[in-house]
Amino acid sequence: MKARTTLNVILMVFVSVFAIAGTTNAKTIYVDANAPGINDGSSWADAYNYLQDALSDANTSAKPVEIRVAQGIYKPDEDALNPDGTGDREATFQLINGVILKGGYAGLGQPDPNARDIALYETVLSGDLLGNDADVNEPCDLLREATRAENSYHVITGSGTDANAVLDGFTISGGHANSDAPHNQGGGMNNDHGSPTVTDCIFTQNAALDGGGVGNYYGNPTLNNCTFSENSSFWGTGRGNGGGMSNFYGTPVLTGCVFIGNSSDRGGGIYNNANSSVCDGNTPTLVNCTFRANYAYWDGGGMSNNYDSPIVVNCTFIGNSAGCFGYGTGGGAISGNQTIATLINCTFRGNSADSYGGAIIFGEIPYATSRMINCIFWGNDADEGPQIALYWASLSVSYCDIQGGQANIALLTCCDELAWGAGNIDSDPCFAEMGHWDNDVWVDGDYHLKSQAGRWDADEGRWTIDEVTSPCIDAGDPMSPIGPEPFPNGGIINMGAYGGTAEASKSYFGKPPCEIIVAGDINGDCEVNFSDLCIMALHWCEDHNL
After folding, report:
1. Nearest-angstrom CA–CA distance, 215 and 193
2. How far is CA 61 from the centre of its chain?
3. Distance CA 198, CA 213 (A)
4. Tens digit of pLDDT for each residue in 198-222?
């Protein structure tokens, strides 16, 4: 056993050495619109002035390649031969396998051209080919704005790529996919049979018939810490899908992404459509994402799902809204048709629908059950089912805080089934600060749970003490892992979007928080007693599948 362990360590060292060597030997290409040199991409002084020239170089170079792009605005129809652009709407920045495209560099004229700060040194990839885009009053007006009619169909294309095609640290705007296929989806980025990796990017004010910000078709992209703001696929006829993103036949994975102020007919933030049996495993996965103030004309203000099985974990849905025009539509935050959804540790607050399902509506899948665990529903609104509505659907709810309890879950047909499990409560969650509507504008709040032992203050970047403690602390499923919840954590996960995370509010035991960790003290009350034994036994049973 010792020899095998030693061999494993040696192999890991060799793998690390080769990985470092591979990274060191990667070719670096520089792009800076202001570079005065010979413009061959070999240094900041001699950087390419146009991103298209750098991509052409990378395409013919041995991989891996890293392209570093300085602050500024870059358009897909411009290159060294066409410095004023061609006006070709089909021009696009095509991602390449084995090529990492990184924006946010200081570039020439700064003390350190290699300094990187994507907010300070913003690098914009723009589809506004003529530079004449007029502002719109609302994102839903983007598709009809005449000054955008000549914009690039897709600012970026990730079609045919795998996870080794990387886009990192850019702002993407002005895409306008308003034509017939294939130019009908993904104004900001179009992935047709493509699965690139996208990190720390902002997609803003892009429009398309489907997927205003990003359109995925038979692709499995990975997106980390990206923001989708004021994108649109709004027709006003029930045909546009996914203001921020549309997914057809794909299984995207999103972590730490934010969708704010996007609009569409269906799925203001995201539209997921597997167009096959949910049993086929078409599973979009969202972790630690935020949906705020998105709007859908028809259903799913934050997210609309059709024939798929999304997994949504530690996400917040705040102030989203949807109009409703009949049964099976609605869902201010989420709608699901022929959908098996799994929602774990999510928070729903201030979402609204004109008729059905202020936060959620699930419909037309009586043979399978969606489930919700450790979630909070508070202050959502609709004529029927202020929190949740079911239409020919089945739902299992356990360890959730739902305002109004079962009475605020509408069963719209005789065939709906609600499995009301253990641990559900109806108590004010005591959010740090409630968001609210002000003249049709959503004013956001803070959805950490108040605690007399300590709550994370995101604005101040520190822990603070409250005068009350939320009943949602230590109220989640005892069998759920508590993850990195800070001590004292009660040994039981909190409800809501911060449960099981490093920003989970601390447990209060009626006295000042314990300052030391006592061996065997599982819940953090500075005492070793039967409560600790019970918690330890529960998790032992979980680990051993008992």
Report:
1. 11
2. 33
3. 13
4. 999 999 999 999 999 999 999 889 9
Band (20; pLDDT cuts 50, 70, 90): very low
Q: Looking at 31-40, 442-451, 493-502, 535-544, which range is the least confident one?
A: 535-544
Which two tokens mark 37?
Answer: 């040199």
70 with 33: CB under 8 angstroms? yes
pLDDT at 515 over 80: no
Q: Other C-beta atoms within 10 Å of 13: how many? A: 10
Rounded Cα distance, 370 and 315, in Å? 17
Residue 253: beta bridge partners? Answer: 222, 285
Please check the confidence at residue 513 and state whether its pLDDT lies above 50. Answer: yes
Strand partners for 372: 343, 397
Cα–Cα distance, 151 to 146 (Å, whole number):
10
Is the distance from CB of 406 to CB of 419 less than 8 angstroms? no
268-277 confidence digits (pLDDT tens): 999 999 754 4
Q: Is the dihedral of CA 98, 101, 102, 107 positive or negative?
A: positive
The total of other beta-carbon atoms located within 10 Å of residue 544's CB is 7
CA distance 389 to 376: 15
The tens digit of pLDDT for each residue in 361-406 reads: 999 877 778 999 999 999 999 999 999 999 999 999 999 999 999 9
For residues 132 and 148, what is the distance between their CA atoms, to the nearest angstrom? 8
- For residue 139, whether the previous peptide bond is cis, meaning omega lies within 30 degrees of 0, is no
Q: Are 477 and 466 in contact (CB under 8 A)?
A: no
C-alpha span between 542 and 46 (Å, rounded): 60
249 torsion bin: left (phi>0), alpha (psi -120 to 50), beta (else): left
Structure tokens at 371: 């489930």
Query: Which DSSP string do the residues of 305-336 spell out, in sequence order?
Result: EES---EEES-EEES-EE---STT-B-SSEEE
- Tokens 């049964």 found at: 327
Please count the CA atoms within 13 angstroms of the CA of 427 that sit on its side-chain side.
15
Three-state secondary-structure class, residue 62: coil
**pLDDT tens-place string over residues 101-112:** 999 999 999 999
Euclidean distance between CA atoms 113 and 103, whole angstroms: 12
Question: Which of the four pLDDT bands, split at 50, 70 and 90, describes residue 143?
Answer: very high
Q: Which two structure tokens, joined as six digits, stand for 247?
A: 């997914």
Place of tokens 């990195």: 484
> E-strand spans in 95-238?
99-105, 123-126, 156-157, 166-168, 171-173, 176-177, 189-192, 197-199, 202-204, 207-208, 214-217, 222-224, 227-229, 232-233
Match 């004309």 to its residue by tokens.
297
- Identify residue 456 by its one-letter amino acid code: W
Phi, psi of 304, deg, nearest 5? -120, 135
